[in-house]
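Example record

The entry below shows one chain as it appears in the dataset: sequence first, then structure tokens.
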Amino acid sequence: MTSPQAGQLQLGWEHASAFPDPGPPPRRPTPPDAARLGPDWAAAQRRQESQLNRPLKVIFCAAAGLGVLLAVLGAAGSFGPFLTGLAVTCCALVAAVSGYGLWQGERALRSRMAEERARIARAREAQESELFAWQAEHATQMQAWQARQLAYEQQKRWYAVRLPDRAMRVDIAGGTPGGWSAMLTTAAAGRLAAGGEVTVLDLTGSAVALDLTSLARACGSDPLVWVLPGDLPRLDLAGGLGRDALADLLSAVAAASGEPELAGGRRSLDQAILERVIGVLGGQPAIASVAAGLRALAQAGEPADDVAAGLITAAQAAQLTALSGRAGSDRTIPERAWILESHLRKLASAGAGTGPLPHRDLRVIALDRRVGAASSRVLGTYLTVALSHLLPETPGPGGHTLFVLGADKLPGDVLDRLGDACDRSAVGLVLTYRQLPAPIRPRLGRGHAVLAVMRLEDSEDAAVAAGLLGAWISGGGPSGPGPRMALAQLTETVGGSITDPASGTYTSNTGEAGGAAPGRLDDRDAVSAEIRTSTGWGMATAKATADGDSLARALERSREILAGPDEIRQLPVSAMIVSYPGPDGRQLVLADVNPGIGGLAAATGLTLAEAPGPAGPPAVPDRPGPNLGPPPRRLDWRRGRP
């Protein structure tokens, strides 16, 4: 994907988070319990020492007591002096040896106590040193977490969904007039702001482009709007065509207004008849003149009336009547000429008395809602085929995009013709289909076209769209789960409050547009500001995000949906599932075509692939305290081992 300045068509916005939630902050290292000499351990050492010394104490006391008793008895004369001295000396030696053992035990106990205190002091120093290192590391990780948290909170939540480089056509299956209005305003405003041109062919009978024209006028531009059939006299699309091109155009219109099963076989004959009539008329005749020539060829009506009306000359009428007479008894050509005249009569007023089409960056050609199905098919075919002939060889520097709303009303061959013409002229083409009839289905997403799916209420059409998206293939079959996509709360909130544009009407301005100075929508910020105040979608979005709490809720994820038939039938009005070819196959993106999103601070003109990604080291894990190990075991000095 390239930058927004490259002029790629933007369809909407994708709700995503380039920076994931960093989670809770890293926990501060907990200082371990300070190492100290345990009183229980000291008491246990003393008890153990006392138990080990108990025999020595008994011997010492017994020897001392016996020595004193013998001394007293010797002094009383019970024993002789020698015997008394010897006994007392022996008792003294035993008492001295046992007393020395008691002193050694006490000395060893004090030594162990001192060693334990020294070990604890060293462990405490190690604890403090390691704790300081952990705290320094935690401070670094805390700064990184705060940066990630700030990036997560302040990040953009809406990213542009733009066409790939090679995609020049978008097929939009499904949708409502309200959803198409949002898509058209979003895509066309971006194209116009980039200095491009936009032509809208609205065949729906609803004022789908009403928001777009209101936005253009609010920004100082001067769009041209034709509403047919009332503005047919002021719309001259056939005046600049040559004989072959005009014959091709009118034969296509006749085929669209005739019997579909016979149109293919009659097309070559119709075109031959029209070429002959146009050749007799010469120059670049109006459609009304061609219809008058067909009446003369069919010998229907009074040629004098057409001559008096200035549609044909008397010489032309005579020449065409003579051509009809040469057929003799074969009435095929006159009869077909009369049928052609009946079909083209609806277009007789087209371009009457007008000059070349004025140039504007935005042009809207719409059908009135009162036009019937047959007339809308004729007018739609006329407009589409004529535009196919009128597309420039090379587009302008900002590009040119043609939007055909309600393309399901056109024959399949007319759509193919328009697509080929747009490819040759490098003109972007966006086709929207309210329904998916059988001739349309194989044309959706063909070649390098981008396929987009909006709400389809018909269950069969929804199943076809799901299959085209590849949802069942990716999910492992019709019963598989399919790919999941996140739907934003704002998409559901605003889509449920928007008013259908079918209640509005266009205002034609082609009668006064000739002398007006064209304006431009070349300021993106100004366009975004005007969208919020001059379009229904912008005002609904501004209301839904009026305060901080509502904005926070609007930016949240609502739920996940599957690209399956049931979900397609219940899509929000402005939701669009976009499928485009990528390096790993077809990619699916859930976009919101609401133009009001562009005015949010959380929206950006960058795509999700162009946005900066998350960075930073991982969070610090919880740190356990240092392992001091168990205190040393008492050394039995008598045995020389633990």
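Notes for this example: Residues 81-154 form the longest helix (74 residues). Residues 39-153 form one domain.
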